[in-house]
Amino acid sequence: MSLFRKPSREPLWRDEFSVFSNDEKYVSRRQFSKFLVLTSLAMFVGNLWILVRSWFSRKPLYPVTAIARANEVPVGGVRLFQYPTPQEQCILLRTGANEYVAYSQKCTHLSCSVFYSAASDRLECPCHNGAFSVRDGSPLQGPPRRPLPRIVVERKGDVLLATGIKLEA
Amino acid sequence: MDRQTSPSAKRSVTAIDGAMALIVILLIVQIWLVSATLETYLAGHYETVLPGAVLSGTIFLVCFGLYLFIERLDAEFRKP
Lengths: 169, 80
Ligand code: FES
Description:
Strand order of the largest sheet of chain A: 1-10-9-4-3-2
Bound molecules: FE2/S2 (inorganic) cluster
Number of domains of chain A: 2
Strand content of chain B: under 5%
Low-confidence stretches of chain B: none
Structural class of chain B: mainly alpha
Structural class of chain A: alpha+beta
Distance between the termini of chain A: 54 Å
Largest interface: A-B, 26 and 40 residues
Low-confidence stretches of chain A: none
CATH topology of the largest domain in chain A: Rieske Iron-sulfur Protein
Order of helices and strands of chain B: HH
Helix content of chain B: over 70%
Number of helices of chain B: 2
Oligomer: heterodimer
Strand content of chain A: 25-35%
Number of strands of chain B: 0
Helix content of chain A: 10-25%
């Protein structure tokens, strides 16, 4: 059965508002094109909505929070902390005598908590076997496609401070 | 010869089908564009949002132009 109806000699109004129930199952090419163009308009409105959202969502200002004492964490050791709010769990790793890295503990796949695996020297997610690099948080294995948000860590004397979040690796 | 089966009518219908196929292809590209823009926006990359919107608007305008073309052909075709 053809999806389209052949153009007829009927006036446009009669064509559009057919009184023959048999004709109702047909869609004219013009109506179908109109539907496609309206879908295209909807997609454009979607893009505009994203644009407006990005204009109004200003970059958040992050607090400066003390997360640990520098020698509290041994080399290769881990410490959990909350940043920037008490609900957001993060993980701090001491990768060298004077090197510290910290990431959000939320897996970028489906938000399970990642943990540090000393054996493989990477951050692993137990839910779907995802793994992230300790060096920059980039995904190494499994379903995650985006890197772990990185917490900016600064050392002030003996204290380690979290000062912000970087989203890209 | 019947007006609806005349060579010019057949040409019109072919042109309308071609324009419709083009709209479908553009629409698929546009749907991909919206999902890609949304994904990069949610990942915190705001720099892709404006080009995405401009491109999406351009695609919409092209689709609308093709629709006007279809309307014109259709109206000509229906002229008594
Ligand atoms: S939630 Fe982490 S891999 Fe799926």
